[in-house]
Amino acid sequence: MIWLMASDSIYFDRDKDILKKKIENALTRDHSVCDKSKIDLVLDEMDEKIYFNPSKRKVRKIIGKRGVVISSFPPSHYGYDDYGVFSTIEIKGDNFPFTVEQEAIGVSKSLVMENIVGMQIMQTDKTLKDLVGVERLHEYLRHKILMEKLGISRFRGMFFFGVAGSGKSYTAECLAGELDRYLVVLDLPYIMSLPSPTRRLDMMFDMLLRQKNNKYLLFIDEIEKMFDFGGVNLAATQVFGKLLTRLNDLYNDPKSNIMFFVTANNITKIIEQNPEFLRKGRFDKLLFINYPTLDNAEKILDFYKERARVNLQRVFCESIGDSSKAFYRMAQTFSGEGGDVSRCEYLGEHLFISLRSSIIMRHIEEKFRGEKINPAQRYFIYTPPEINAFVETIVENYFVAAVDFFEANDRFGKIGDIIPNVEKFLDEVASEIVPLQVSAREGIARQMAQAMDFSKSGSTPFQEIN
Ligand SMILES: Nc1ncnc2c1ncn2[C@@H]1O[C@H](COP(=O)(O)OP(=O)(O)OP(=O)(O)O)[C@@H](O)[C@H]1O
Ligand SMILES: [Mg+2]
Asked: pTM of this prediction?
């Protein structure tokens, strides 16, 4: 008795000829499950008798007879061992893991996939436009995308190493959006907590590869935290080995619909214990991303200032209709009795025109001059998220001061009234945003040193790109 386990309703078709064709197709397609002689055997047995979703009693009766059971459940569901009594084969639908029913009622594909193998699948609206102040990285990515479009070379995989907050995860997000690929976040610790993690990992890769009409960016974040690179934990070693094999296959498969993006904060252990991970032919490039240079930091600052300005404008304009808000009173005062909404935009500009980026940069540089880990180098002390936090704090502090001023004077002041001393204002903001390079000096110094040690010896597998 052969037991076909089928989750898709297409295998419950009562027309024997149609059904045989469908099953033959499925078995041939999933060749790793069956060889030709086994397929013939299944088809022969189907000529005898087919039992669709039999009851427990029925199953007991037909043991030892010839024929095929087609059930949505495995024999264990009926209390039978997988081995001996039945020969069990799983047949997958044409759109596995999705069934025809799921597609018919529009169940979200990412939800189905998430449930099956523990991974998040997302679409992102970020693109390379949102990645600023990293000109060389931009150029590299644009170049790779163009080569792929022209069919000259494929964009396969990247390994990204860099200090905390340098933009590793963010780059993956922007790249996925730019390439119109789903971002698949691989949750390796979760996969490792399952009963057969290597099988799950295989299943996940197979599932993505089957979705030929979709393109994915497989994102494996902070890989060093997911493995015991000492090789003591057997399960982790096996999963790691499996991952390497699968990444290798993706790298070499010209038809692959998956590109991959791996990040790490710490590569010392990987280099010492699993150097094969970084060998040539596994990633297109191994990149190191450092703190932004001063020029780049200014561009990032401009980017976040502009975003804050647009936000401010929106907040003001929305609050025009809400008299309970302090914003409303300020906006009314500023835009005149008629509440001329178009003038609200000046409120944001009001702030940022007077706080020019060059002034902010100079102030921060002076404030932290003695605290840089590598003072000789032309890197800024803040990472992009710290620059962002700086801009947000400027906005908040400005409003606190503006509301205070309004309340005391019953009129909206000029910028000079609200921020009479720019240096002092910036100093207060900077005191709130202590750079990680200062508060976690040793850890960051270690991260930076990793990349520098390699480059000093001339043997770095990483290329610095900012
Ligand atoms: N080049 C950039 N342009 C604009 N914003 C950036 C850039 N790089 C980083 N950011 C901002 O900084 C935030 C943090 O970056 P991200 O999470 O990618 O850092 P990371 O390198 O992954 O850090 P960690 O090592 O802590 O995971 C992002 O969400 C993004 O808002
Ligand atoms: Mg990250």
From this structure: 0.76
